[in-house]
Amino acid sequence: MYTEKVMDHFKNPRNMGEIEDASGIGTVGNAKCGDIMRVFLKIEGDVIEDVKFKTFGCGAAVATSSMATELVKGKTVKEAMAVTNKAVMEALDGLPPVKVHCSLLAEEAIHAALWDYAQKHNIEIDGLKEPKADIGEHDSFEEI
Amino acid sequence: MSKIIYLDNAATTQLDENVFEEMKPYFVEHYGNPSSVYSVASESKKAIDIARERVANSIGAEVSEIYFTNGGTESDNWAIKGIAENYVNKGKHIITTKIEHHAVLHTCEYLEKQGYEITYLNVDEDGLINIEELEKSIRPDTILISIMFANNEIGTIEPIKEIGEIAKKHNIIFHTDAVQAFGHVPIHVNEMNIDLLSASGHKVNGPKGIGFLYIRKNIKLKSFIHGGAQERQRRAGTENVPGIVGLGAAAKIACDNMEERAKHLIKQRDYLMEQIEKNVDYIRLNGHRTKRLPNNVNFCFRFIEGESLLISLDMEGICASSGSACTSGSLDPSHVLLAIGLPHEIAHGSLRLTLSHNTTKEELDFVVEQLKDIVNRLRAMSPLYEDFVKAQK
Amino acid sequence: MSKIIYLDNAATTQLDENVFEEMKPYFVEHYGNPSSVYSVASESKKAIDIARERVANSIGAEVSEIYFTNGGTESDNWAIKGIAENYVNKGKHIITTKIEHHAVLHTCEYLEKQGYEITYLNVDEDGLINIEELEKSIRPDTILISIMFANNEIGTIEPIKEIGEIAKKHNIIFHTDAVQAFGHVPIHVNEMNIDLLSASGHKVNGPKGIGFLYIRKNIKLKSFIHGGAQERQRRAGTENVPGIVGLGAAAKIACDNMEERAKHLIKQRDYLMEQIEKNVDYIRLNGHRTKRLPNNVNFCFRFIEGESLLISLDMEGICASSGSACTSGSLDPSHVLLAIGLPHEIAHGSLRLTLSHNTTKEELDFVVEQLKDIVNRLRAMSPLYEDFVKAQK
Ligand SMILES: Cc1ncc(COP(=O)(O)O)c(C=O)c1O
Ligand SMILES: Cc1ncc(COP(=O)(O)O)c(C=O)c1O
Ligand code: FES
Ligand code: FES
């Protein structure tokens, strides 16, 4: 059901992990529909020097996180803004129709991290809006 | 990935070689239409008679009470819509549960749109209905109780005999979706007061595209599929002769070997549950620990998502299934997992492993080993796990 | 009785060996449930895709317009009940004919009980409907025209293109039961303005228990069988993978060879009609002489009864069928023979011989020879014949 590229990025996710002293962190998604994505950005000057992600979601969610981080790594903030979910999907040789929403999350997570960065540094990034789905820290854990 | 370990026998099973051998002559050689007059067709007729007898024997029914259908889904649709239509003068109230298969649930939802009232019984955390709640929900206009024999996701076996007694006491027709139970656990329609029972061939190493509906003699149930006079005028359409033969053969093999297979499977199942519980943290067993199908194991693994788990297992040659939203085709995780009280994010990380009588201990050991690694890897990736670990500190 | 001469291909056909070969891997080897996530199941998924494409190509449809069902009967039920339910706000009037298969007629009768109004069009002595009568019977509340492509008893092919034009002109949905026509005569759903089309595998050397419904893109047709999300949520139930593969293979073979086979069959058919007419007195050809299925021959033999004829032929190894009351399961002879204006006693003596592409001229010669003797023998036994002969004198 997934392309070889998707499977490759699922199996060997690039940039998976955390950045201790991140310039911006964005967490998007909704535990209700399954997908949670967190992106860590290390920005120096105007350049994304490093990027890491963590994802709770399906194969497509993991693969799009991985690919999206690949696409923004080393780019300027402005170039990163141009990385759309469509670009991510194309880079993965496509996704099944029911999985398109997972790729949207990757775009949103990067935007959310950029927003966090912009807030912390009091700057404005062209075309960047406040993330609607930033759920921030997860604080409630039901015991099972 | 050289060897496949198939642990999704609740989804479908491998056709038994011996069953296929019995079916073979009815494809090219004995292809006659069983409704025909000439003697060439009598081979087909005889074959159907034998299959019907085997199926009847397997649930303690009479031959004339077995009607072949296209599968479990058609049987469920026929039973429920049929009773709704035939007994509408008595009332429009039906009792079922929150954990039925979609073949029952979506049929009930369809009837709701036609003005029927449906009570969806709750289940407890193990997936069991409450007999008192059932009895209390009976009304003068209740025409049908439809409760599954065993659940397809969490494997819980419902108290069918008690349900049958309640139904009988109140003179209400009792239908059970036994698609998962048929051929796996003993069924006796008379002892259990079952009036209608659905089953499907491909869940018991029989062929796909064939099933049956048991209809107790005295039940008035009109046709659901109208047309020719097949199946004593109750189910029209040229008979799927090889399919029927295969269903009969599979029913016989399943019943002849049930005791022995169940004993073996329960041992395997319990071993698998034990090993998983021993090797992986933060998990929850879904379904009742003992009142469950001999071949069903179902756990939630916290902080990870089911589809990722499935794909990772698949890469190791292990076939399994999940009730996660990402595999369910809708935005919600399985209604069964929600009904037993799991919060959404935990329901997401469910894994169902359903064994066959051919599953070996070595296979299970391999699965546990892989599972351990995969769960670790996925948790390392999971923002939820990260938050959890931080909160612990 | 050493050799069997099977001339009942309208009842069912022999499964093509090549079709069976294509089906085989999907029984025991590739048994995965096509709805599953893991790669083992992708074989089943791919097989279904190929079959759907083959079926779509065979009627000039798009892949997404083909829905697999359990057979022609289910397809007819789904199409007619589905449209009735979905378009009830527009009206409750349906037009069909007096010579439809029971899968259509009994479904219509069921709807009549639900308050729908059905117009049953007359046919002429050849079994053809009248286009003007059709157009006149259209009302503002007409929601469906359901007219069969070709009749299963007398073989008459209806003017489908003209019917499609009328339906389109009046913006009414057009369903055709093409169970007998599919794979035997060219069908193009767009050129013929067909909105819904039913067909069945086992009538074209495919397997039993599988069929399809073509549903034009823009047609609103809800599920008939509710449950899982198979067939793009429109037809629930685990897919009969080998059956679907077989239907696809049979559709492809039938279409690839249609022209050649039809040419051969028409020659055979006309030879058989000619020989019977030359050798037996007091007979009547049923169905249109040229607008008929390439493989259908149907005669009434006066003064004799169909079942006796069939049994006598069976004793010589010849398989055929009849519309006589004694074989119809009811007290009346076939509704089709009555609709073309035959009196009861003549309708009783009907014989249908339906050829396959493997039927040889030698077989036909043998059949004519036997038929001549049998008819003579039965007439010698018949009081009707005695009366007739006396009256002649
Ligand atoms: C409990 C239950 N009911 C009904 C069905 C439907 O059976 P089928 O897909 O054979 O129509 C299934 C299997 O999917 C099932 O597990
Ligand atoms: C014209 C026609 N419609 C419908 C059917 C029903 O098809 P099936 O028996 O495959 O369901 C038949 C065959 O019996 C037929 O000849
Ligand atoms: S994360 Fe749930 S479908 Fe992709
Ligand atoms: S004479 Fe016996 S059924 Fe017609």
UniProtKB/TrEMBL annotation, chain A:
It comes from Lachnotalea glycerini. Residues 1-122 form the NIF system FeS cluster assembly NifU N-terminal domain. InterPro entries: NIF_FeS_clus_asmbl_NifU-like (IPR017787), NIF_FeS_clus_asmbl_NifU_N (IPR002871). Pfam families: NifU_N. CDD domains: IscU_like. This is Fe-S cluster assembly scaffold protein NifU. GO terms for molecular function: iron ion binding; iron-sulfur cluster binding. SUPFAM superfamilies: SufE/NifU. GO terms for biological process: iron-sulfur cluster assembly. The gene is nifU.
TrEMBL record, chains B, C:
One of its GO terms (molecular function) is 2 iron, 2 sulfur cluster binding. It is found in: Cytoplasm. Pfam families: Aminotran_5 (PF00266). The modification N6-(pyridoxal phosphate)lysine is found at K203. Pyridoxal 5'-phosphate binds at G72, T73, N152, Q180, S200, G201, H202, T238. Its cofactor is pyridoxal 5'-phosphate. Residues 5-365 form the Aminotransferase class V domain. [2Fe-2S] cluster binds at C326. PANTHER family: CYSTEINE DESULFURASE, CYSTEINE DESULFURYLASE FAMILY MEMBER. Master enzyme that delivers sulfur to a number of partners involved in Fe-S cluster assembly, tRNA modification or cofactor biosynthesis. Catalyzes the removal of elemental sulfur atoms from cysteine to produce alanine. Functions as a sulfur delivery protein for Fe-S cluster synthesis onto IscU, an Fe-S scaffold assembly protein, as well as other S acceptor proteins. Homodimer. Forms a heterotetramer with IscU, interacts with other sulfur acceptors. Belongs to the class-V pyridoxal-phosphate-dependent aminotransferase family. NifS/IscS subfamily. This is Cysteine desulfurase IscS. It comes from Lachnotalea glycerini. The gene is nifS.
